[in-house]
Amino acid sequence: MLPYLTTALLALGLPQPAAQNAFRQSMVLVAEEAGPALYQQARTAARQNNVPAALRLLKRAVATGYYSPETLQEEPDFAGLRTQPAWLLVLAQARTRQQRHEAQFDQPLLALIRQIGHQDQQFRRVAAEADRTYGPDSPQLRAAMQQQSTLDSRLIRQVDSLITVHGYPGKSLVGEYQQSVAFLVIQHNPDDKYLPLLTAAADKGELRWSSLALLIDRLKVEKGEKQLYGSQLGPAVNGQYQLQPIEDEPNVNTRRAKIGMEPLEDYLRRWSISYQVPTASLNPNPPTLYVAPRPVVDEEKSPVELIGGYEALYAQLQYPAAARQQHLAGRVTLELRIDKQGIPQDVTVVKSLGGGCDEEALRVMRAARFTNQAGEDHEIRVSLPFPYEKAK
Q1: What is the pTM of this model?
Q2: Alpha carbon separation from 158 to 105, 248, 386 (Å, rounded)
Q3: Annotation: CATH topology of 304-386
Q4: Where does the TonB C-terminal domain lie (predicted)?
Q5: Cα(222)–Cα(14) distance, rounded to whole angstroms?
């Protein structure tokens, strides 16, 4: 288990508000990795207010599994246990077990991984609190995730450097508690290029397959495809999260069980989603439970049109000095909503480049203006090139 995970986050879906969903990916990883039976039984007992049974089961789970004190403290199901005298003993037990386990590994590398893990969660914790206090699409949440987005672009470069030196920094290098830290940074900067590396790591036991399943689902959703494991949610509608469509949904729990994931109905209960796995002939879930399939809108097919055209927009981009020094080249992908007046709203980075390029892309796109023939707010994605060279 990761010791620095909050309990909240999911996918950047296709046309959904990115910041609203981005902070929840850590929650997904916690939910899926806290899968062993004793831990889940302790959660169930705690939800039923059976405090003695919950503490007894949790002690056994900590003695045999890898649950850090931070993970236990951030588990919402255990809120009712924290006033019990035995709770401090459970935390001490977890802390001692983690310290003994991690003493055998390279300490400078472990310290770096812990720091990366902490920073990966720094503003996601703030976003999680904003979600609880102000709601899933609040300005406070968006502000926290904007700060986290800037930090994410730096963290992925650190992880890339670690991978260059060590390969994937998984269980054999940093231990059971930290094996998913690098994965989580990649998950927050999703790219197909990491799949071969992570698949090989999972096959060798360096990374949990239940973690990799989240990235597989996320990449599929971003391409407009159905997910395989049901890990990805869409935006909240009237305060209720929706589920991204699932391929071969009647067999989703079979796929989940093969890689150590809990049943989908138990997983979705964390978001107050009442769910039943469909049969081949009947889906008992209401259509409103699912995100309506919508393709990614590309620039040429969009019902909104950029005033002046994209070549003129690209020409406004200034190549940041930091990006030049680092020889960064590529694209920053933005998600935004064009309002009825053609003004960009909620402009958010969904694929970062770093080196100041993200901030420059946000500056230019926020100043752009569109004609909007849709008659209503319309969401699009745009990729801006760095450095931009005008075609001759």
Answers
A1: 0.65
A2: 20, 37, 20
A3: TolA/TonB C-terminal domain (3.30.2420)
A4: 304-392
A5: 5
